[in-house]
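User: Hi! I have a protein structure encoded as tokens and I'd like to know what sequence might fold into it. I'm fairly new to this, so please keep things simple.
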């Protein structure tokens, strides 16, 4: 998935997100091929609170890329073609967010694992796993939460291809490895 494809998805959705925050409808259609449109989208996106941009990137854009790319996004991440992802992360959130983003392929689980900077607010993610299954793909999140007790660090969620989100419960681990071992070991 190249930068132009990612921006074709990103800019219109960021304008939609911005209009939802300001309660105003967008005044014009954005032509994504134009660099002015991309700059306009980035300017409007910067007015959206950072935690909402992070949420949008992790919980909306990434699942959409996974489920609508017929495996292309997964394969690109698996093979190390990650510059478009980093460019989109910088465009939607900021350079610090993009710089802290780490992506690794785990052959044991046939999964691409993402780690992010420590979340500032729920339900932004510590980690995300994309796992290839016999039926397609899984998109699993480990999200920050409001601590209900001393042992809970986050909650596990799963976005499904139909857009539904499932809550898989609270967890206490703090590492990507523990998340992967817990959620991917059986290819659930």
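Assistant: Happy to help. Inverse folding works backwards from shape to sequence: for each of the 188 positions I chose a residue that suits the local structure. Here it is:
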């Amino acid at each position: 998935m190249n930068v132009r494809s990612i921006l074709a998805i990103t800019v219109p959705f960021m304008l939609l997100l911005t209009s939802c925050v300001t309660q105003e409808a967008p005044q014009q259609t954005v032509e994504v091929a134009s660099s002015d449109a991309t700059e306009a989208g980035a300017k409007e996106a910067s007015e959206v609170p950072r935690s909402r941009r992070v949420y949008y990137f992790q919980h909306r854009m990434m699942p959409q890329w996974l489920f609508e790319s017929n495996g292309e996004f997964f394969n690109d991440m698996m093979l190390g073609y990650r510059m478009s992802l980093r460019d989109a992360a910088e465009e939607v959130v900021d350079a610090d967010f993009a710089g802290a983003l780490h992506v690794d392929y785990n052959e044991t689980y046939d999964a691409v694992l993402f780690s992010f900077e420590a979340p500032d607010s729920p339900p932004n993610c510590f980690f995300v796993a994309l796992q290839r299954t016999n039926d397609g793909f899984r998109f699993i999140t480990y999200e920050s939460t409001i601590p209900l007790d001393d042992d809970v660090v986050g909650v596990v969620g799963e976005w499904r291809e139909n857009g539904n989100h499932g809550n898989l419960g609270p967890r206490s681990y703090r590492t990507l490895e523990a998340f992967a071992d817990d959620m991917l070991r059986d290819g659930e």
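A useful reference point when you look it over: The chain is about 45% helix and 20% strand. Feel free to ask if any position seems puzzling.
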